Structure of endopeptidase La:
Amino acid sequence: MWSLSVALILLLVMTFLPTAYVIQQPGPVYNTLGEATTSDGEQVPLISIDGATTYPTEGSLDLLTVQVVGNRERTPSWFELAAAWFQPSRAVLPIDAVFPVGQTTEERNEQSAADMVDSQKEATAAALTELGYDIDARVTVYSVLDDSAADGILEKDDVILSADGRPVTDASSLREIVNEGGGDPVELVVERDGDELTLSVTPRESEVEGESTLLLGITLLHDYEFPFQVTIQLNNVGGPSAGMMFALGIIDTLTPGELNGGANVAGTGTISADGTVGPIGGIRQKMWGAVDAGATYFLAPETNCAEVVGHVPTGLRVFSVSELDDALDVLEAIRDDGDLDALPTCTAG
């Protein structure tokens, strides 16, 4: 009796002890061919296009989300963690992997919102490029970090045209130019309120993921000149992982017939303007979210395949994609009753 009493007391104490983990689980699923709810509670098309001919769609092209249970202010109890550990649709992660040390909740939300805006623009550029439109790219300053090298020099919404006389086409090209300078001042030509300015910024050395690099202290967005307006309405969802599904939804809306043959298809993956599909987080939870939403096919980034193998829920068929064209090939095979077995999938090793 004494042993049982002590055990119960210890279990009760553990319920209130803080933990260093959070729980990842499937979040809401959104059909890019369907409707979304605005902040005012109004139902509107998730993707709407003004200035171009659009066509009816059928079935679904679902984007998946992941919810995080817990934060630094309130972590899940040990009982909640134990329960989540035995559920395949949930994952227990160190809190530092989701909420980086030193990053405030406000900063995390701001970065997540910026990633979502950027992914929508990249998806639109990828879709329209696939359809044969010429797209002009612009690199825009989204924010300037306080006390950084660029603080007081660059401003939000500045368009960076060139650095040290070389055109800036994306964040990678600017990063390369800055680091090639070895710490010397970088001469930037920017467009601000319709005027061109020449500004000098001296980068500062910093450590990113264990490696020394030179930074200006800005976050960037890719902006584009599109031939018509594409609006993506999706509230309270952040991050870049919906990019590929946005692109497929735009293509389906702008082309006759059903891109997916009327089937229920889900998927995930970042996308860049050139159509490259990139990795995302929480893919196992997203596969379970796809099943719960009624999808029978799932498009997974090739770079996430190691996390997919051995964890595919029953009833879901997963295809591996590395480019937007790969995803279109899968949808074509589904639509035309093609040979699905001939398409790439995630395999062990």
Remarks:
- The mean pLDDT is 90.
- The radius of gyration is 23 Å.
